[in-house]
From TrEMBL:
Residues 1-27 form the signal peptide. NCBIfam families: ABC_peri_MoxJ_2 (TIGR03871). SMART domains: PBPb. This is Quinoprotein dehydrogenase-associated putative ABC transporter substrate-binding protein. It comes from Paracoccus nototheniae. It comes from the Bacteria.
Amino acid sequence: MGRPSTGRRGALLALAMAGSLASPAMAQVADLRSTTQFRVCADPANSPMSSRDGTGFENKLADLFGQQLGLPVTYSWFPSGMGFIQRTLRMGTCDVVIGFAQGDELVQNTNHYYTSVYGIVTRKDGPLAQVDRLTDPALKDQDIGVVAGTPPATHLARAGLAPNMRGADLFVDRRVEDPMGDMLEGVRNGDLGAAVLWGPLAGPQVKDDPDLQFVPLLHEETAPRLFFRITMGVRMEEQEWKRELNSLIRRNQDAINQILLDAGVPLVDDYGKELIL
């Protein structure tokens, strides 16, 4: 369905990919799934989610599933965003996207295996350290980093903070750009008072940071929602493969949660109201 890039799987890989367009002319395909490899579609530079060097938490989830299936893990690499699904999953070069937002029509979703939430990054010793909602008056005179087109931007605008927003692009190639890293550095050096980012992207980045903190936004009451359920994505036609992955998710949920928590991904309940620790 999420580190934490500001793109897809930025704000998210899972959410950035949700903006991709499917080709209506794409032909239906037979079951293309490999039986000798666990073939993963992934962004090579979407740390802390996925990375070519294997350090992302989605890489670790792929390793877990490969072990459970008794198959070696291989990758089809392509930058997340426009064209990602068509150039990977639909072309048959890989069989699963490890993180994809539930309900997106480009893929067939498995059952969700975690739910996460947007949050606000501030300095631990700064004047915004206690802020936990986007309507807090303390944000009024602060520059706020946010990814253009993501749900928090709507909340900030509704709160009258549109002039304060310092936007970053939703779709970027993180092999050459790092807008999320730039925003975090802006908060660290005082150029920004805060940044509002997708938890799976930002949480791991500030987990051990001596200066910054990530506070989940659990108290927003108006639409759009700021929490999302994250699934694995497979081809529409591959019902048996989806059921097999659902079974693996169910039987390995504790191990999945541990990988995510160790990485610093903020996990919340299915209603986005309570943290899961």
